[in-house]
Design a protein that fits this description.
- This protein is mainly alpha-helical.
- Helix content is 84%, strand content 0%.
- Helix 3 runs antiparallel to helix 6 and helix 5 runs antiparallel to helix 6.
Amino acid sequence: MASNREALNRQLQQIVNSLVEQGILDSTFWMVHSLKEANSPFFLTEMIPMFCHNIQTTLRDLNRTLEKEPVNYYDMNELTMKIKGCTSSFGARRMALACVTLWRAVDDKNKDRCGSALNGIRQEYQTLRSSLDRILELERTIVSHQG
């Protein structure tokens, strides 16, 4: 059982290292991952769905705010900072970088650029979500082998 768990942990490490090399994640993700050791073996299996839910909610709110006329750029800025903070503190590097593009468009009060930047964030989220789904599945398997 222990060797199987070790193999699963090595597989997880390879996946995350590959995502770091691709720039999808950064080393902050390893710090988030290490919190499971200090808190609970279920920490990451609970944190990933919560992170995804928060991102989806904020993306929906950004979209709704951008669609309203006139655009409330103060609210856009607040939501952009919220999603940037979430992604940065989770280690979602490429998504955090895409948020900077949106922040600049919001700062310039340029609705077209905001729309393009928001589309870029959505694309990065889809890539990230696919990767996190793989990590989550593996984490659940690892946790199930700890008993």
